Amino acid sequence: MYPCEQYLAAAKDLVSRYPQLKDKSRTHCASWHASIKNRARKAEAKAHRERRAALPCNQQCRPKNAVRIVFPAASCGTGEDEASVQVRVDFMKKEMEKAVWAQKKVQDAMNRTYKARRAWLNTENLTVAVVTDRYPALAWAQEIQQEFRRQTGRDAQEGLTAFLERSTKALYKLFCMKSSIKTK
C-alpha cells in the first residue's frame, strides 16, 4: 500500500533521465523523493476521504455491544504538568511534520506524556482522527505497538503470534464455514 522504496527509485529514474533536475543532496534526488512521497500521501488521504464520504453512515455509528475498557487515570507525573505536556505535544506535532523525524525524541515525548494521554483518552469519547491529530505519532504502527507495550507491559507481536499458534485450527474451521470458501 505504501511503496516507500519505489518513491526513491522513481526519483532516481527521474534525475537520471533529466540530469538538469539534480539537487544539491547526496543522492541528487532527495527533494524529488520527498515531493513524490508527499504527493502520494496526499492522494491517498484524498482517496480515503472520498471512500469515507461514500459510506452510508451517520454520526452515531457504533458497533453493537461495544465494551470500553477504562484504565485508572493517573496524574501527569513528576515534572509533567499540563503546560509541559502541551509543550511536548506541540513538539511532537512539529517533529512529525518533517520528512525525516527524530524517532527517539518523539518516543521520549510519548513516554513523558503517557499518563496525561491516558487520562484524556479515558475521560472523553474520541475518534481516531482527533487522537492522531493531537498525537500524530499514534498513526505509525511502531508507535501503536509501543503504546500497547506502555499500557500492558507486553509485546503485541509476540501475543498475536502466540494466539495464532494456539488457535490456528479453530480459525481455519471458522474460515471454512464461510459460504465463499466452501468446496463443492
Automatic annotation (TrEMBL):
Q: What is this protein called?
A: Putative ultrahigh sulfur keratin-associated protein
Q: Which organism is it from?
A: Ixodes ricinus (Common tick)
**Lineage, broadest ranks:** Eukaryota, Metazoa, Ecdysozoa, Arthropoda, Chelicerata
